[in-house]
Amino acid sequence: MKVFVTGASGFIGGAVATRLVQAGHEVRGLVRSAAKADAVRAFGIAPVSGTLDDHALLAREAAAADAVINAASSDDRGAADALIGALAGSGKVLIHTSGTSIVGDEAMGEPSDAVFDEAAPLAPEPDKVARVALDRAVRDAPGIRSIVLCNSLIYGDPIGPDAASVQLPRLIAQARETGVARHIGRGLNRWSTVHIADVADLYLLALEKAPAGTFAYVESGESAFRDMVQAIGETLGLGDAQPMDGEAAVARWGREMAVFGLGSNSRVRGHRARALGWAPKHDSAEAWIRAALAPAGAA
């Protein structure tokens, strides 16, 4: 197939695009700079220079492709509308990338018993209403085999172009910079987690098998932030994890990341991915943290 991937130099898009090339597909990937073009080209991805604001470019690439994977942004409504408009009535595949902060709360390190599967109704916080509406617009797009994959906290080493995930690298960088590994508040908030290799496997499976209108949570495991940050601190030799107050967290990372990316609970169960035959191979973010941050030569 000819597949157009947005975010082709990013953590998710780069992994998916690289796996598509390895599977024999012809992949064109949206990138924003010459350096990123060189990076994706090294993995067999044909670079398309532009941004999500280039709606005419997105429409041309979508119309010329057999399938489109939007992995650049979960929130850019204009870009999504451009892709939907170009594909409407074609019967082609559109896979849109969302994130499970749509079920997130404003717990700032406190725990929650709320767990969501795909059948559970959503009552998003005001910050996430637009994302939920965008997911719905993709699923309801006419004449498209549209699929929304809603990823939980993704961990793992990059597959393809060098890139980093969203949440754990920020906590690791903070620990290295300050010499103290910190979680927000008590760190008892929990997120579902998934390894990037398993994410990429699911995108390829969804491209092949997912029916139109599919919405699937993507998860394989769950961790409290205190446990993940403890693994960071111990492995870096910094000792026990310590709390960070909410005001300091917002000052460092901004409201969106502090409240919904690092301080919230986002616990989901993905039944629909497994119904497609997805069988994730990894289930522990903490194990990956300890392996990835271990000193060279450590047993």
**Structural shape:** globular
**The CATH superfamily title:** NAD(P)-binding Rossmann-like Domain
Rounded to an integer in angstroms, the radius of gyration calculated over CA atoms is 19 Å
Mean pLDDT rating: 97
Q: Given the helix and strand composition, which structural class is it? A: alpha/beta
Taking the sheet with the most strands, its summary is: 7 strands, parallel
Helix content: 25-40%
Number of domains: 1
| Quaternary form | single chain
Protein name: NAD-dependent epimerase/dehydratase domain-containing protein
Pfam families: Epimerase
GO molecular function: aldehyde dehydrogenase (NAD+) activity
InterPro entries: Epimerase_deHydtase, NAD(P)-bd_dom_sf, NAD(P)-dependent_oxidoreduct
Task: Jot down its keywords.
three-stranded mixed beta sheet, NAD(P)-bd_dom_sf, NAD-dependent epimerase/dehydratase domain-containing protein, NAD(P)-dependent_oxidoreduct, Epimerase_deHydtase, alpha/beta, 299 residues, 11 helices, seven-stranded parallel beta sheet, aldehyde dehydrogenase (NAD+) activity, single chain
Tell me what the structure shows:
The chain has 299 residues and is of the alpha/beta class. It has a single domain (2-291), classed as NAD(P)-binding Rossmann-like Domain (Rossmann fold, 3-Layer(aba) Sandwich), CATH 3.40.50. 40% of the residues lie in helices and 20% in strands. It contains 11 helices and 14 strands. The protein has helices at 11-22, 34-41, 55-64, 77-87, 129-139, 168-178, 196-209, 225-235, 246-262, 271-275, 285-293, and strands at 2-6, 26-31, 46-49, 67-70, 93-99, 116-117, 145-151, 153-155, 182-184, 190-195, 214-218, 222-224, 242-244, 268-269. A 7-stranded parallel sheet has the order 3-2-1-4-5-7-11, with helices on both faces. Strands 8-10-12 form a 3-stranded mixed sheet. Strands 6-14 form a two-stranded parallel sheet. Helix 2 (34-41) links the parallel strand 2 (26-31) and strand 3. The longest helix has 17 residues, at 246-262. The chain is globular and about 55 Å long. The chain starts with a strand and ends in a 6-residue tail after the last helix. The mean pLDDT is 97. Pfam families: Epimerase (PF01370). It comes from Sphingomonas sanxanigenens DSM 19645 = NX02. InterPro entries: Epimerase_deHydtase (IPR001509), NAD(P)-bd_dom_sf (IPR036291), NAD(P)-dependent_oxidoreduct (IPR051783). GO terms for molecular function: aldehyde dehydrogenase (NAD+) activity. This is NAD-dependent epimerase/dehydratase domain-containing protein.
